């Protein structure tokens, strides 16, 4: 039986970053990465890759990102783990021994058991094949229904609409992007979509896919309405790929493969990271969702350090995220207010509306910010931003770092920032400071 010091299952960002971190450490370990997708796609960019403006190859991840970093690559499916023998079994029947094993098996799209789901022209949004299918469908058809109004569904809707298709989004919850976005921002985001011709069916669930000649022809909603369509896109969430781990007797939960703070699973010398692993919240310490590329990468770095014996702890996910519609970008880090309340935190919030540059400059527009603080300690536990243009990620990053550093309302009232007429609000105004001031007022503490 062949043997590798480290075997990684999965070639997404988590798997690849393990390879890079191990090579950077120059520890001289033999590393093998096994993945079942011949070529990986950059998943975050899949919605944008539906546009034929650029060749599909632009959206693919070259396998050299594994092989040029000192790892052997096997394109094959791992069928089973034998923890007692420290070996994995491949689909070919071959076995490979490991010193340490990393499960980075990711997640797969949730396919709801709705009548008609097996019809042609219904596709999820995740893999290279999904992207090819979406490109072909968008090229030859006029009408699309997107089932699921999270950020992925919204991004697909925007791109399809920009390509000239008639697009509808069906979302079971009262609003789209509701689970990651503050309620006060939702009207503006929804208005931007409808102003650009995207139809929204919120508070309605897809009940049945109607078919004609084997292909989807419509979506029936639970309130009886029918939306005619040429194709349907499924973006209602993902399921972590835990089966390999579960079958090997490792502890798993609904949220993924269970690990300790060093990202070790319950199996000897087996780590898990990325979408397949259960995450804990940085803020509450409790298990939470967090299928984001940045979480996968951070977890992979921590797992790699522990493989090298460096005793690194994963602090939990802050879930910094961002997305964009036609005119706006928005995002959040930590807990939005409803999530914080649902977690049982006593919260006080602060909001601000601050211009993105000096008022006399051209193209001035407001930045909307909402910060969430734990009332007793004043510690920031979350924050969200909505603004025109596509600069939101930097704002979300600031909030994420503030959460990580345990910043309080007082810290934000005293933080020192830059200003410039073209780049930021006038000297007296700052989005975070004003939101903190609002929170201090609500909390009835004195603000400077
Ligand atoms: C459309 C879309 C847009 C997104 N946009 C963003 C974004 O803007 N920002 C952000 O932070 N995140 C985004 N994400 C989420 C991000 O892509 C994921 O969190 C990230 O890909 C997770 O990485 P991973 O390595 O854990 O898993 P994956 O990328 O899923 O990789 C896991 C790999 O393991 C392989 N595998 C599974 N089982 C086996 C097996 N038994 N044998 C061999 N191989 C196996 C899988 O085929 C897969 O290739 C987006 C996701 C999608 C789908």
Supply database-style keywords.
448 residues, alpha/beta, 12 helices, binds flavin-adenine dinucleotide
Architecture blueprint of SSEs:
Blueprint: E1 2-9, H1 13-24, E2 31-35, E3 40-41, H2 46-49, E4 60-61, H3 64-67, E5 71-75, E6 78-82, E7 87-90, E8 95-103, E9 107-109, E10 122-124, H4 128-140, E11 143-147, H5 151-162, E12 166-171, H6 183-195, E13 199-202, E14 206-212, E15 215-221, E16 226-228, E17 231-234, E18 238-240, H7 243-247, E19 252-253, E20 256-257, E21 270-272, E22 279-280, E23 287-288, H8 293-307, E24 321-324, E25 328-334, H9 337-342, E26 347-355, E27 366-374, E28 380-388, H10 392-404, H11 409-413, H12 431-442
Parallel strand pairs: 1-2, 1-8, 2-5, 8-21, 10-17, 11-12, 11-17, 12-13
Antiparallel strand pairs: 3-4, 6-7, 7-8, 9-18, 14-15, 15-16, 19-20, 22-23, 24-25, 25-28, 26-27, 27-28
Helix pairs in contact: 1-8
What would you say this structure looks like, in words?
The chain is of the alpha/beta class and 448 residues long. Helices cover 25% and strands 30% of the residues. It is built from twelve helices and 28 strands. Strands 1, 2, 5, 6, 7, 8 and 21 form a seven-stranded mixed beta sheet that branches. A five-stranded parallel beta sheet has the order 10-17-11-12-13, covered by helices on one side. A hairpin with a 2-residue loop joins strand 14 (206-212) and strand 15 (215-221). Helix 1 runs parallel beside helix 8. The protein starts with a strand and ends in a 6-residue tail after the last helix. The relative contact order is 0.11. The mean pLDDT is 97. The site of flavin-adenine dinucleotide (FAD) has 34 residues, from helix 1, strand 2, helix 2 and helix 8. Residues 9-15, 34-37, 40, 43-44, 46-47, 77-78, 104-107, 125-126, 152, 241, 244, 274-275, 291-294, 296 line the site of flavin-adenine dinucleotide.
């Amino acid at each position: 039986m062949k043997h590798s010091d480290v075997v990684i299952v999965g070639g997404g960002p988590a798997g690849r970053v393990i390879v890079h971190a191990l090579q950077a450490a120059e520890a001289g370990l033999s590393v093998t990465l096994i993945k079942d997708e011949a070529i990986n796609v950059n998943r975050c960019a899949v919605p944008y890759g539906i546009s034929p403006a650029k060749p599909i190859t632009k959206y693919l991840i070259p396998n050299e990102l594994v092989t040029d970093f000192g790892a052997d690559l096997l394109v094959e499916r791992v069928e089973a783990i034998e923890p007692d023998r420290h070996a994995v079994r491949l689909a070919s029947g071959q076995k490979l021994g490991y010193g340490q094993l990393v499960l980075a098996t990711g997640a797969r799209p949730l396919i709801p058991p709705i009548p008609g789901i097996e019809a042609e022209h219904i596709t999820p949004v995740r893999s290279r094949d999904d992207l090819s299918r979406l490109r072909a469908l968008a090229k030859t058809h006029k009408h699309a229904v997107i089932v699921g109004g999270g950020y992925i569904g919204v991004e697909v809707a925007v791109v399809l609409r920009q390509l000239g298709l008639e697009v509808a989004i069906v979302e079971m919850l009262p609003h789209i992007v509701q689970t990651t976005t503050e309620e006060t921002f939702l009207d503006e985001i929804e208005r931007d979509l409808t102003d650009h011709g995207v139809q929204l069916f919120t508070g309605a669930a897809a009940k049945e896919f109607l078919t004609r000649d084997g292909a989807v022809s419509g979506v029936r909603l639970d309130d009886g309405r029918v939306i005619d369509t040429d194709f349907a896109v499924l973006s209602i969430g993902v399921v972590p790929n835990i089966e390999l781990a579960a079958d090997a007797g490792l502890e798993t939960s609904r949220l993924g493969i269970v690990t300790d703070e060093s990202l070790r699973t319950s199996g000897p010398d087996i780590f898990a990271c990325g979408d397949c692993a259960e995450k804990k919240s940085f803020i509450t310490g409790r298990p939470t969702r967090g299928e984001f590329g940045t979480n996968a990468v951070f977890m992979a770095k921590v797992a790699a350090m522990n493989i090298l014996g460096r005793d690194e702890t994963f602090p939990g996910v802050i879930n910094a995220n961002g997305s964009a519609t036609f005119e706006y970008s928005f995002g959040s880090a930590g807990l939005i207010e409803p999530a914080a309340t649902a977690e049982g935190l006593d919260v006080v919030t602060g909001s601000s509306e601050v211009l993105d540059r000096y008022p006399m400059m051209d193209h001035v527009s407001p930045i909307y910010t909402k910060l969430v603080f734990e009332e007793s300690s004043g510690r920031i536990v979350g924050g969200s931003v909505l603004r025109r243009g596509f600069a939101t990620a930097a704002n979300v990053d600031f909030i994420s770092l503030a959460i990580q550093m345990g910043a309080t309302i007082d810290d934000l009232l005293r933080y020192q920032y830059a200003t410039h007429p073209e780049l930021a609000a006038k000297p007296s105004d700052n989005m975070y400071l004003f939101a903190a001031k609002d929170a201090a007022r609500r909390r009835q503490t004195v603000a400077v």
